[in-house]
Amino acid sequence: MRLLRHSGLLTGFALFLAACSGGATTDHTVSESEDIVLASAPNEEAGPVAIELFTSQGCSSCPPADRLVSELVADPGLVIITRPVTYWDRLGWRDTLARPENTALQRAYANRLSRGGGRSYTPQAVVNGRVGLVGSRRGELEQAVAEARAERPKTSITIEENETGYRILIDGTAESDAVVRLLALDRSETVDIGRGENGGRSVTYTNILRAERDIGHWTGGELAIEIGAEDLYAEGSDRYAIVVRNGSSGSILAAQYLDG
């Protein structure tokens, strides 16, 4: 995995050993032939579990994680969001899908995650904005998703399609002032990487975040939000999701694709 920053001689040496270098790694990576079956069936009352993958075209440890989420996206009990970051651009290849906002969110997560925080690295998977882990470690991801599915639901999202667009219904108990966000996603992009650690490779990315914006604020109880067809035209996107989050970078209370 790639770690964001080094601190001190001993720490720097340790991070060098763990860093993405294209050599051997002890991470459990997933080959294209492996079947992905999460350990726990979806809890329909709780709604889907959100998995955000922080990745980079400049990190040679990332393709196994990118491949893993490309298989997990078929699970109706998950909302997959790929968030390419910018900080590995300095290695000789500018990530064509990266957004500074993804980098900022990951840095905020480093200080707020209930488990697996303290630093930013790639590939990192964050489950429901609460638990961070190495994005290619299938077993740890299965466990984090199973824990999220076992939690008692406090927030629900109901999506109703109508003649003008969609009606979004949020209901439940809020932990604090929450933000309702509309995320524009690109279902799949294959990138030919010309330089850097992945130079010469073609990597496919899934549900890449193209844009996001606040569409409401929620403090508990029932909230209805109307989304018109004009709101669903972000460049490069062909899928949308609703996320209810504590503040701008807190835990995710609920997530749902608009298209099911």
Description:
The structure is a single chain. This protein has 260 residues and is of the alpha+beta class. 18% of the residues lie in helices and 36% in strands. The chain contains four helices and 13 strands. β5 and β6 form a beta hairpin. The longest helix is centred in the middle third of the chain and has 13 residues. The chain starts with a strand and ends with a strand.
Into which percentage range does the β-strand content fall? 35-45%
Taking the sheet with the most strands, its summary is: 4 strands, mixed
**Unreliable stretches:** 4-43
What is the residue-averaged pLDDT? Answer: 85
Query: What is the alpha-carbon Rg in Å?
Result: 18 Å
Number of strands: 13
Descriptive tags:
36% strand; globular; 260 residues; alpha+beta; 4 helices; 18% helix; four-stranded antiparallel β-sheet; 13 strands; four-stranded mixed β-sheet; single chain
Briefly characterize the structure.
This protein has helices at residues 9-18, 63-72, 100-112, 138-150; strands at 2-3, 49-55, 78-84, 121-122, 124-127, 131-134, 155-161, 165-172, 178-192, 202-218, 223-228, 239-246, 252-257. The chain has 260 residues and is α+β, with helices and mostly antiparallel strands. The strands form four sheets. The protein has a four-stranded mixed sheet with strand order 3-2-5-6, sandwiched between helices. Strands 10-9-12-13 form a four-stranded antiparallel sheet, with helices on one face.
